[in-house]
Specification:
Length: about 425
Amino acid sequence: MVRLTEYEQKMLDGEFGRYKQIAMEHVVEFANVMGAEELVKISKVHMCAGCPPLEYGHSDDFDESFRRTYLWTKENIGFEGFSPDVYIQTDGAAVDHYDPKPMYNSEELFKLNHERELRFAEGGASIVGSCTPYLNGWILTRGETFMTTESSNVLFSNSVFGAAGNANGMAACGWAAITGRGPKCGMHIPENRLATVEVQIKCKCDTPRDWDIIGYALGKLIIKHNNAIPVLTGEFHDIDTIRLKRMFSAIATTSGLEMCHIEGITPEAPTKGIALGNKTDYPVLSITQEDYDNAVSCLCDPGSGPVQLVTVGCPHYSLQEIRDAAKYIKGKKVHEGVRLIFWTSSSIREAARLSGYLNTIEEAGATIGTNGCPLVQGFECYRGVTGMVADAAKQAHYNRSWLKGGKMYYGTMEQCVDAAVSGAWEEK
């Protein structure tokens, strides 16, 4: 049984109200299932708001929907907000913050999403709506504890910041946001964070797209080894936030990893030996150029063809990437019948507006989308789409099933823009 502090026991006993008590009951039950001996304070939570609770709670009433989604109770208890000791940032949702039309969302869903986000904000959450919270103020120190619903964020936060946290799903994030507590298990345990296998990067690794492809291939490789925690080694250089977020998003697409050491980058991996806990006997794997090429063939259909939807920014674009996209699209015009959408957070969209990038992009006939991407928008956004282009392995991988036989193409941001302008993907 999990051991509780005096404060945690008071929460469990109901001294702070039934609302927190219910959440704490779930935390304790979860901890016991996970075999945790104690709880940890959670300082940051990244969770879903807006319309996902509508989908999972099956109710138009916010309190009822929240209760079903996050409290798992039939008791008539309304939403009472989150712990003031926890910084909460929202993940993506099923509808854009600003304009429902580009993804064919209904006005009703658009309005409802805003209503739900307002309630989350009143409860203490910061409304960002992004899969890349670390680009929007989600900055952790080494050892800081967190919980997230986003599979790529858990990788970034553990592997780049050296923070400690798990991707535990919507309900568990809700309990942590209410109580400020979570089970001490998984990536909270130092020995669980050690690398168990070396992966040598032996393919080209110069561009963000290269690291996207490496991540996709790495996930496929590592899942064959029971999601062993890798330490990446090789002659790579110019590693930056953009490359890392692309790689982690792709890794999360093809594996269940929550930690990936990069020699010289990860705080716990100043050397390969330290990352491996000074073990001398461990498997050595590699990502070769053949693995790289095979990954590309899985992501991009052969040949050329017309396209109707071009989606760029998965994981969500940084302001730097939006700037580069604006520079490239300036003076161009999106082809009639094609939707070109650059995805980012609402906060970066506002910075793009102030910087003039939004105007440049909209003058070209494209738009900046927020609060999600096609993967969470539903089937309606693929209406009339027989050809789609994306600049991310995650999008190319998952959207293939949404297209129901349509063509899926995968390329750089520049290739995506070119396809949107010409109305067709050209095989190169």
